[in-house]
Amino acid sequence: MLIIDGAQGEGGGQILRTSLALSICLGKPFRIINIRANRRRPGLQHQHLAAVKAATEISSARVTGAYRDSPQLDFNPGTVTAGNYHFDIGTAGSTSLVLQTLLPALLLAPARSSVVLQGGTHNPLAPPFEFMQYAFLPVINKMGAGVKVVLKRAGFAPEGGGCIQTSMVPAAHLQRLDIIERGEILQRRAEVMLANLPMHIAERELAVIARLLSVPDKDTHITTDTKAAGAGNVVSIVIESANITECFSAFGKKGLPAESVAEIAVKEAQRYLDAGVPVGRHLADQLLVLMALAGGGSFVTMQPSLHTLTNIRVIEFFMATTFTTEQIGAGVWKISVDH
Description:
The protein is α/β, with parallel strands linked by helices.
């Protein structure tokens, strides 16, 4: 059994999620110790237990240590079964992060699957729905899969209650992915999601984005969700280029002016544009596991975060795989993986 130190590197829940994803893909049991040991509240929390439960169900795994605040988990997977699944996180915990745990195994399963996830669809500490829709899943579909995601209801913190529905056509074999150049920028657009909040918030946010990023009115959009359990606001800036689409988001919160929310999203998008790279930092994290399972790949990005470097270490521990991180320019790095 592989022994994973959950306190290594970045030391967060991603170590657990990557371990679960690779365990059910490869059929390798593991024990993770010191789970989130350096966090304010260490051990397994509700969000992490939701990922464990979902991974357990799709792989008929045997598990010990799956309880609140547990510092250690033993996970022994069985065979992954394609099917129709429904998981309710029960809090505003991220639906995207649970999907991230299940996706690799279901894309390698022998038949189609669908997954309905209830919880937080727009969580400031996780990829929001728009990132999955516009940036992450289109790249995965280029690897030979067929994944579609639909937002049925928005879920913001702290109430949660959101719902996404995902359908997955597996790939016979995940194709190698190389994303070296961004290519010509084809479009910049901005979207604002409002849940149970006044329209002027979105209008003020879009005015800032239009001014700072020169986004024309025809490429701005406001979506309202009156079915959400609570109030919420997210700004998303989408940069569509010849070879890739990226998405950058910022979340409204009480006491933070709408203009400041928009400026946060603009700064992140502008940092990406100035770097001249195709893959942003958040997308870089998301691609690592699937590239390793594909047997190779590469992409150009900004300086890898500690989160990315930790993820790489965990993947290398599970697989006979070597990642290379190489600086190829000022603030520009190339990450490659080969067996």
